[in-house]
Write a sequence for this structure.
């Protein structure tokens, strides 16, 4: 497949478009998630009045919050390792931007078509661990140190079920290219039904559940928010951060939620496509150009639905303890996802 | 050394070894974590010094007194009616309940008794302040364990109770409604019907909390078997209230004591739990809130008519003598030992507040637990800082 846009764009123009597109694809969903879920949904669920007051329908709340954070003093603790302390939030945010690179938003609306896309996404997704770990270590604060170490243990533990959950998808699609996985889901049949395509959430339901739990843990959201734990570790690795640096962690948290939900919707919900048979398409080459416009919208709605689930769980559940959390990862999620791989590969060969 | 369970024994030995540097090769590097004085889990200014081995607590000690307010001393320079304005600030979440034992002690010295109507209203307001207090505990419990939603629901429903207290007394936090010999005012019109409606809402709130927290597997795994306090240890440390009842001791001053209050006119139950863990303490409090609703619903229907104030002299001089009265306050036993020399004010007052004794068990119970469990145990022991640093 050759990326062909309607107009010829010079190389520098393409690069500029990609950078701008990356910022739009990461920050726009993050803002949407914060507004829609963190402010509106949470305030309805928890009978809070604040986010309904500022501006029409509380729409100015987001701007007010950002303004508030930008005004705050940038504090660096005296004993902190200043250079690393400053870099840490950037590492976390950058890992999110690197993650969006492989996500396809349409037949041609993508940053790079990478044949080992799944592998890349899972590998680069764990870069944020380093950021969190050094943030905790360099803060020169015991709470931050405990939080950083907890984060290290947790993120590494949940990296495994995440990877293993995706293996089933890779086996079924027969490709590690995210674009091919989208095509596979939209062209295959399931149970003799051709109108529904084969979104892997049906056949890989176990994988989907394990993946979403692992995503929840990777995002350090409740019930897996041991590293943050504001009531015991006083926000863990983020204790010493203030102002804009805290805001970067905050943006990274929600942007990563969005990006992981993008990846989950590519892997399990059929990505940017609707089943190709609806329009009489057979493969990606016969897809019309307007799919590049509609695709991102479809992706966005799928992403929002998944983030809705993530946030719903976040607002409902209490927090795990460190040992319970590790036990859950090693004794439940990994065996389940290994069994899922075995069953998938047997069925793939047999059927 | 009091009875220790296996895990506590191990960590005790580890602590001894670290102290004596007996086994330097096997020893891991310890860390002293200073929780508080300003920490979200302490709801105020309590400090807990914990020595950690990894994330396990080897040794912990609470340090109270950052907010000492000297109430016992302040009462000595005030007249008896003025003392009520002070003492309802001790446990600020269940303020009306603080006034009652002191007033009862003064009444005991003066050998007068409030009229029946005043006794009924006193009891109802006492139970309402218990609901306001323990209801907030149920929400706050969630926050300590990482679930944010319950606390907002608790604040929402506590508002109804506070509105009731405000409707009757004119004050939300510091009612200052009790007088020696009765109450300041009668109930306003329509208050009884409103109370009946609110109690129905609060029953729903209790069910909601049971679903949201107590039915949650994560909550259960975080609280069951954590911070177990056996009955004999609980008694030896002077625990009272729900903390003691959760250890299986059937002890409730509302039932066991003969005070001029009307708890015995209602049909209710004292809940106990044999486990003595954090779960039991929370569960007993939930049931207690339900029972309080039941008491209020029953008492509200048969408030007798009549005055709310007995005949007392305009200038109150309490005759010479000493009196000790304690009641089952939201947090446990709260009592006042009042010594009078026949003056306008008390000569000396000793306050026994529940939280101070409840928190005294922390060094014992925190030994050998993990850092997240410190928070669970502190939350389930439930203390109010004003009550500790009175």
């Amino acid at each position: 497949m050759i990326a062909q846009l309607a107009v010829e764009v010079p190389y520098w123009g393409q690069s500029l478009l990609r950078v701008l597109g990356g910022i739009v694809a990461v920050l726009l969903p993050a803002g949407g998630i914060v507004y829609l879920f963190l402010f509106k949904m949470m305030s309805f669920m928890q009978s809070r009045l604040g986010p309904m007051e500022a501006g029409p329908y509380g729409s100015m709340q987001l701007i007010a919050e950002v303004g508030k954070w930008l005004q705050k003093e940038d504090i660096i603790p005296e004993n902190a390792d200043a250079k690393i302390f400053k870099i840490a939030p950037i590492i976390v945010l950058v890992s999110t931007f690197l993650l969006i690179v492989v996500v396809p938003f349409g037949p041609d609306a993508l940053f790079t078509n990478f044949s080992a896309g799944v592998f890349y996404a899972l590998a680069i997704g764990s870069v944020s661990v380093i950021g969190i770990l050094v943030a905790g270590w360099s803060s020169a604060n015991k709470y931050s140190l405990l939080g950083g170490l907890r984060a290290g243990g947790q993120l590494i533990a949940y990296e495994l079920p995440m990877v293993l959950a995706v293996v089933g998808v890779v086996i079924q699609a027969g490709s590690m290219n995210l674009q091919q996985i989208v095509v596979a889901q939209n062209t295959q049949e399931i149970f003799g039904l051709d109108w529904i395509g084969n979104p892997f959430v049906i056949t890989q339901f176990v994988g989907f559940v394990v993946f979403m739990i692992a995503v929840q843990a990777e995002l350090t959201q409740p019930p897996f928010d041991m590293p943050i734990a504001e009531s015991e570790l006083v926000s863990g690795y983020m204790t010493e951060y203030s102002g804009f640096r805290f805001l970067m962690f905050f943006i990274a948290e929600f942007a990563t939620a969005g990006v992981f939900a993008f990846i989950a919707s590519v892997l399990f919900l059929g990505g940017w496509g609707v089943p190709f048979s609806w329009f009489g398409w057979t493969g990606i080459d016969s897809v019309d150009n307007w799919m590049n416009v509609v695709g991102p919208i479809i992706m966005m709605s799928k992403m929002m639905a998944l983030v809705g689930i993530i946030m719903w769980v976040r607002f409902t559940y209490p927090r795990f303890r460190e040992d319970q959390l590790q036990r859950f990862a090693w004794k439940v999620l990994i065996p389940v996802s290994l069994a899922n791989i075995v069953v998938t590969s047997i069925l793939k060969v047999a059927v | 050394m009091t009875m220790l369970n296996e895990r506590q024994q191990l960590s005790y030995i580890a602590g001894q070894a670290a102290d004596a540097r007996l086994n330097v090769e096997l020893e891991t590097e310890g860390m002293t974590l200073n929780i508080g004085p300003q920490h979200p889990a302490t709801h105020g200014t309590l400090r807990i010094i914990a020595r950690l081995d990894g994330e396990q607590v080897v040794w912990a000690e609470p340090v109270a007194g950052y907010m000492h307010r000297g109430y016992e001393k302040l009462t000595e320079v005030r007249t008896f009616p003025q003392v009520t304005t002070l003492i309802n600030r001790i446990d600020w979440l269940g303020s009306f309940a603080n006034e009652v034992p002191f007033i009862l002690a003064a009444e005991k010295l003066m050998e007068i008794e409030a009229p029946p109507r005043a006794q009924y209203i006193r009891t109802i307001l006492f139970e309402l302040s218990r609901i306001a207090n323990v209801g907030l505990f149920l929400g706050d419990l969630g926050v300590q364990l990482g679930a944010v939603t319950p606390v907002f629901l608790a604040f929402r429903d506590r508002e109804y109770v506070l509105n009731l207290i405000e409707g009757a007394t004119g004050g939300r936090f510091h009612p200052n409604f009790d007088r020696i010999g009765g109450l300041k005012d009668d109930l306003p019109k329509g208050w009884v019907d409103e109370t009946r409606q609110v109690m129905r809402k609060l029953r729903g709130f209790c069910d909601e909390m049971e679903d949201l927290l107590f039915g949650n597997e994560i909550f259960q795994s975080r609280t069951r078997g954590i911070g177990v306090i056996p009955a004999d240890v609980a008694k030896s440390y002077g625990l009272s209230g729900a903390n003691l009842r959760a250890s299986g001791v059937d002890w409730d001053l509302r039932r066991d004591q003969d005070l001029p209050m009307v708890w015995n006119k209602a049909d209710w139950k004292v809940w106990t739990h044999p486990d003595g863990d954090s779960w039991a303490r929370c569960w007993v409090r939930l049931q207690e809130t339900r029972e309080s609703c039941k008491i209020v619903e029953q008492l509200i229907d048969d408030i007798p008519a009549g005055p709310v104030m007995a005949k007392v002299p305009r200038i109150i001089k309490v005759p010479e003598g000493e009196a000790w009265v304690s009641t089952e306050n939201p947090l446990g036993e709260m009592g006042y030992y009042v010594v009078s020399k026949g003056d306008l004010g008390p000569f000396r007052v000793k306050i026994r507040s529940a939280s101070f004794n409840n928190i005294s068990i922390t060094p014992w119970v925190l030994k050998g637990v993990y850092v997240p469990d410190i928070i669970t145990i502190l939350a389930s022991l439930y203390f109010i800082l004003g009550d500790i640093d009175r």
Observations:
- Residues 51 and 59 of chain B are 5 Å apart (CA to CA).
- Chain B has a mean pLDDT of 83.
- Chain B touches chain A through 31 residues (CB under 8 Å).
